Amino acid sequence: MDEGGNEVFEADREVPRDGFARRPITLADVAREARVGESTVSRVLRSHGSFSEKTRARVEEAVARLGYVPNRIAGTLASTGSRLIGIVIPSLTNIVFPDLLRGATMALEQEGFQSVIAVTDYDQDREEAVVGSLLSWRPAGLIVTGLEHNSGTRRRLLASGVRVAELLDTDGPGLDIVVGYSNRAAGEASARHLAGRGYRRIGYIGHDLTKDRRAAKRYAGFRDGLRAAGLTLAGEERVASPSSVEVGRQGLFDLLARAPDLDAAYFSNDDMALGGYFHCLAHGIAVPGRLALFGYNGLDVGRLMPQPLATIRTPRVEAGATAARLLCAGAPATVVDLGFELIEGATA
Amino acid sequence: MDEGGNEVFEADREVPRDGFARRPITLADVAREARVGESTVSRVLRSHGSFSEKTRARVEEAVARLGYVPNRIAGTLASTGSRLIGIVIPSLTNIVFPDLLRGATMALEQEGFQSVIAVTDYDQDREEAVVGSLLSWRPAGLIVTGLEHNSGTRRRLLASGVRVAELLDTDGPGLDIVVGYSNRAAGEASARHLAGRGYRRIGYIGHDLTKDRRAAKRYAGFRDGLRAAGLTLAGEERVASPSSVEVGRQGLFDLLARAPDLDAAYFSNDDMALGGYFHCLAHGIAVPGRLALFGYNGLDVGRLMPQPLATIRTPRVEAGATAARLLCAGAPATVVDLGFELIEGATA
DNA sequence: CACCGATTTGGCAGCGCTGCCAATCCGGAC
DNA sequence: GTCCGGATTGGCAGCGCTGCCAAATCGGTG
């Protein structure tokens, strides 16, 4: 009645599958319902600018009555800068990346941001593609994993002007914000620890190092650490596939076949080490009496093994959270080294 | 030169932190550069509509020259329906949800969609909040976990008119698309299996069932299965916290303290069962001779234990992928039961 | 009762793109 | 050379919201 003559249009609604959804409710609908201007509604909904208490009540009532859901697509286009952060991770198979995501989404949510994720499968070309794809959403920032990117990715990142945080590695130059720890130093520390405990014939079991650059840095650091202790790798087994419990188990089996006199095994990460541990259990190899085991990441599962796994705990969740907070806060370019912690455990 | 008089504006660019980004390149810039109309550029970029080969080349050249990145925010607002799918999962701590994500993002990427994720921590009120938040991006569809939602969530979902896929459970009525398997039947099958193998004093070790409704359904199914076999639960330990290896290990310890004569333990999932297995290893409890163990999910780690874990394998990745594909294809409301597979293993 | 500064409000021009429609072009048929 | 149908192209009005600015309102003050 009060709108005079709009009835025809209102009746002209789309009626989809369940007779429920209709022409989407817009801010203008709310303004009409509350008998205020559009900008007033906008101000109230964002608690931004000034308006009277009475107006707020009217608007909120209208919102509730109509079941209005703001359209952030429109809001983002009209304002500048979205409340979106893109997150690029290499894999969802290894729990470390969900951990990173968890830290990031927790922090992001607090700041009122949302995350769009993309997975690269450790492929730099795919990384370039997904970065382009994420950039097309005009995110407020991007979280990527590692410091190694192909030139196309680097160019896009730089040219976009979007803030970038590179995570889980500090061994090299970053583009903008860097949050992580030194994988190289972690490898060195592991070698030093094993050498210090008296192990002399140390082998390495790793996964695909050409794709996982951080694992490659640990490997390099580990070799350096051994060398500093006057040792060399007594044998190694590298499998050209992603890390997994299975690869670790099979890898140790294969390595021991070639080098039966090893007294310690360093794994590219905890999943691999767990596989190695299972191999030892299955074959009656005494740990650490006959063979010591050392991992990387400090997963919960390692801590709960009958003998807690010797490993290095990395602050993954914290790295995600820190990066998210820095991006939201518009912090200047910086490097945040979160460090790592060596867990002595009982397997080495 | 050729634009006549625009120079002043062009010079008036923002110059951010590194002197790199500038006034963002828009489709209009590309059109001007390529000397074609805006709609032509739009058509070429989306390979939609007709245009000559010569025009395509001109446009692509201009795009490359300017480093243009389309603005999907604007594109989405102008067209109807985004290429976004919202994914709501309860947790990132348990690998099953990253698995689900993995399946979904893989399928989504093939279809040219992107995923926005949100985590509820198994809290229905948080679910309502994140669903609202995701809906404000006007996604083409939403993937949620489970069939249980509070009334607010249900109302928002229905009122939005957005397609919804509910995952990992088929025990109950769905809102739209349902992809999963019967948790209840899985529980029953587990009980039947244990009873069939001759176990009589069977205990249950579980995590917080009030929040994890699917675990609760397995528990109910398990009890029904026992009853059908003329048995009852010989003891149970339920911990009011999320599932983990630690809770499983501690839970079995506690349960055995109260019910030392159990001959089998059914765990709410594989993580929990792995913890139980570690307890048995640490305390010299023969598996399955003295105590049989049974899990749920069919994680890789269980398959690689010295004795493969008896469990039920669930098609998580496939569920994510199937849901994503159905949503993208605009399939009608349906229930897809992917089933599950009982793995005999060696622990029961 | 007119007047003033502060507070509250509404109007409207974009944000960058897509969809529609009309205009133009092209190659062959007549 | 003219005409025709299809292929190609450009113009422009929105999509729903925000940001800016001007207008209206309010509550004292002199």
From TrEMBL, chains A, B:
Highest rank taxon of the organism: Bacteria
InterPro entries: HTH_LacI, Lambda_DNA-bd_dom_sf, Peripla_BP/Lac1_sug-bd_dom, Peripla_BP_I
Keywords: DNA-binding, Transcription, Transcription regulation
Entry keyword Transcription regulation: yes
CDD domains xref list: HTH_LacI, PBP1_GntR
SMART domains named among the record's database cross-references: HTH_LACI
Record PANTHER family: LACI-RELATED TRANSCRIPTIONAL REPRESSOR (PTHR30146), TRANSCRIPTIONAL REGULATOR (PTHR30146:SF33)
Gene3D superfamilies for this protein: 3.40.50.2300, lambda repressor-like DNA-binding domains (1.10.260.40)
Any one Gene Ontology molecular-function term assigned to this protein's record: DNA-binding transcription factor activity
Domain called HTH lacI-type: residue spans: 25-79
The protein, known as: LacI family DNA-binding transcriptional regulator
Transmembrane portions of the chain: none
Pfam families: LacI, Peripla_BP_1
